[in-house]
Amino acid sequence: MLMAAFSATISDSSRFLSSTSLPKRKISASSPRCRSFSLPKPFPLSRLNIGSRLERGKSFTICAQASVSDISVEKSMGKVNLPKGDMWAVHKFGGTCVGTSQRIKNVADIIISDDSERKLVVVSAMSKVTDMMYDLINKAQSRDDSYISSLDAVLEKHNSTALDLLDGDDLASFLSQLHHDVSNLKAMLRAIYIAGHVTESFSDFVVGHGELWSAQMLSYVVRKNGLDCKWMDTREVLIVNPTSSNQVDPDFLESERKLEKWFSQNPSKIIIATGFIASTPQNIPTTLKRDGSDFSAAIMGALFRARQVTIWTDVDGVYSADPRKVSEAVILRKLSYQEAWEMSYFGANVLHPRTIIPVMRYDIPIVIRNIFNLSAPGTKICRSASEDVDGQNLDSPVKGFATIDNLALVNVEGTGMAGVPGTASAIFSAVKDVGANVIMISQASSEHSVCFAVPEKEVKAVAEALQSRFRQALDAGRLSQVAVIPNCSILAAVGQKMASTPGVSATLFNALAKANINIRAIAQGCSEYNITVVVKREDCIRALRAVHSRFYLSRTTIAIGIIGPGLIGATLLDQLRDQAAVLKEEFNIDLRVMGITGSRTMLLSEVGIDLSRWSELLKQKGQVADLEKFTQHVHGNHFIPNTAVVDCTADSNVASCYHDWLCKGIHVITPNKKANSGPLDKYLKLRALQRQSYTHYFYEATVGAGLPIISTLRGLLETGDRILRIEGIFSGTLSYIFNNFTGTRTFSEVVAEAKEAGYTEPDPRDDLSGTDVGRKVIILARESGLKLELSDIPVQTLVPEPLRATESAEDFMKQLPQFDTDMAKERQDAEESGEVLRYVGVVDAINQKGVVELRRYSKSHPFAQLSGSDNIIAFTTTRYKEQPLIVRGPGAGAQVTAGGVFSDILRLASYLGAPS
Ligand code: ADP
Ligand code: ASP
Ligand code: MG
């Protein structure tokens, strides 16, 4: 077996642990062929067990002299040329793919069943292992002794996996290597512990062990299946140059040279290579940084000019958005290199952002596949993604969305910036000097301000650097400020077809506006592959969901909070229960009742209340009602972009919350008349707010229950008609009473009958007083533009004066017959003139007045033709002057009122983008 030989040079102290108190040692190679490799400076080499590593000669090895085997391989060099090209298939298996012994076996099966002529397999560390390794370092560095037990856990994880997978010599050999490595690590971590400090190189050396172990185990398993396979420690092959920004740049030429050499010494048709790790040109072990195995695979693909690089992971491919955040995300069957790059750069961690460049150079496609779902075809990333794949609609200009959290915006502002060349350069050189990474830049063409996003952890240094760099300009007032806006996130929409497609940003911004999300900054490069917006961090997932559903026409989801599960509320809940599935399937509207609250108890749910059992659940699981907590809960979930509160009470306290809710972006839907008939100034503020924002306030059911009265009135006004008069029978109860007061029964008998039939409020005086009709009249008057208070409307009450103070409804009903003669006389008078009595509300728009009273109508008048509890409303307008526009139908009752509320909810859904 090849023994790689290195000299360990300790003189390069700056790169490693910086402790001057520890001894310096230098081991130089006695053979000219030995590679040189620097070890962490204070590391006690005696404990590295160099001899045993040399005998085994498998992995990244340190030696003090050249070996015989080294020379023999050298002799054969040049004989085996590295074949390159289509015969190679590269596979990369992520951490979860090799997370257990069973999964490692599955991976081996996939490798074996791939019938490519040659295969190069890049493997990550077992899942969580890299995190565990970083944790070891952090603990040792902060002098926390528990690094020892954590290292034992790492050892145990690999030990038990190996015991499951291997046997005989393979097992012995792997375990001896593992124990050897772990004892080295223990010594290294001890050194870090003593120094209380670690350098990046030292850390990279430690964390890369996960890949060394997984690659070796996998190669043993493949060999056990009778296939010839070599494992590759990629630190011997991949040469990368560190850059300033926690990244490395591959040195392709040098890596290719090393690969050719490696291959000539290890010719094989199957190579299992470590992901993530590499060496610097000085042979110092390094890594490709977190999640770098994808990048390793891409570099390998380029070095071998492979036919394809398959990246195996735990999802079916690249989704249109992070599937953990958007449950309706769809798999993208094909992406262009640019699209994949943009998606990964903007936080879709399914692919390391640097994976694309190496493969793009040779037009090598990448396929992302799910190891746990082999039937899924995955996502293909290649040069042009324009052609259709299996009928997938590729017409959507936006392919996917990604987000980056933990950002801050920096805004440099001042009138002195306009037209001054070099300002941007000065800003960004100051930012560069503190090593901060600028993620997005936006400058208005007025040149008045430059705004950019940096990682939150870097913003303090950036702001300080800018303050000091522009001290003079700030003092002189040429710059007004360097402002920091913390807690931001970026949301990026990516798609090659966005280029030169008009309207994409309009749709994007519209979706955000409708979800009531404020955009802090915007950037779109002229390649037009990406539109980036900066939003508040807490809005980010909601924003992502809102734009995703807008472009993918997935469901319009609304989180609903129902206040007042009384007669109307309960009926609405039942209607929602019965209709929910149809709405979801046929109309793509997903209504989730996240909370129901009465005056005493409330029921909250994280995912949506099971409406078939809501009243039972409210009893069993209800908690003490708290309106603030309730709305916070319904609105506070970040997963549903839209929230609506449905107020089914008649409570003015609840109504007084609407303004606040609308300000927070909560839509309000209600049959409660209190807000619109309450104090005029409050009403006007509410309507003004509604007009200014994209937050909706619907109250169709406040007048005429489910009848289209408000919407008809709006339609007339919006199309330029002028309201002259609205006159109508607005109370179902009073409609019923006068429709049936025909002389066959006394007035009190008819009232009792109406009460019996459930047409009246529990106390019929609430209907007979006319206040409710007064409220409806004021609502319509205000809707027509009249600025009236409720007290401006004279309301004729039908409750006889002496009975107004009567205690109970029962007493009132008992005494009502005493007044029957008055009403009988009025009816009789009307009858004699061929008329009927009707209790009506009138909005007199010409004279800016309103009134509620008992009137007489000719028997041929439409109001005289009513039956049951129907409402009738006549709009006299400039267009409908001769014949008024009449709306007539049942205007009271739980079913029709709840139906009116329900149709407001659906109107909201369509305003929010649900298909019509
Ligand atoms: P591996 O260990 O295999 O490299 P990663 O965890 O690095 O896997 O990447 C896969 C994960 O990326 C998925 O489990 C998924 O949760 C996440 N992810 C984020 N955005 C996307 C996206 N747009 N499409 C697919 N997966 C995504
Ligand atoms: N194991 C490394 C990490 O977790 C590299 C990778 O898996 O891509 O960061
Ligand atoms: Mg990954």
TrEMBL record:
Keywords of the record: Amino-acid biosynthesis, ATP-binding, Kinase, Lysine biosynthesis, Metal-binding, Methionine biosynthesis, Multifunctional enzyme, NAD, NADP, Nucleotide-binding, Oxidoreductase, Sodium, Threonine biosynthesis, Transferase
Pathway: Amino-acid biosynthesis; L-lysine biosynthesis via DAP pathway; (S)-tetrahydrodipicolinate from L-aspartate: step 1/4; Amino-acid biosynthesis; L-threonine biosynthesis; L-threonine from L-aspartate: step 1/5; Amino-acid biosynthesis; L-threonine biosynthesis; L-threonine from L-aspartate: step 3/5; Amino-acid biosynthesis; L-methionine biosynthesis via de novo pathway; L-homoserine from L-aspartate: step 1/3
Cofactor: a metal cation
Any one Pfam family match given in the protein's UniProt record, by short name: Homoserine_dh
The keyword Membrane belongs to this UniProt entry's keyword annotation: no
SUPFAM superfamilies registered for this protein in UniProt: ACT-like, Carbamate kinase-like, Glyceraldehyde-3-phosphate dehydrogenase-like, C-terminal domain, NAD(P)-binding Rossmann-fold domains
Keyword hit for NAD: yes
Family: In the N-terminal section; belongs to the aspartokinase family. In the C-terminal section; belongs to the homoserine dehydrogenase family.
Function: Bifunctional aspartate kinase and homoserine dehydrogenase that catalyzes the first and the third steps toward the synthesis of lysine, methionine and threonine from aspartate.
PANTHER family in the cross-refs: HOMOSERINE DEHYDROGENASE, PTHR43070
UniProt name for this protein: ACT domain-containing protein
Organism whose genome encodes this protein: Hibiscus sabdariffa
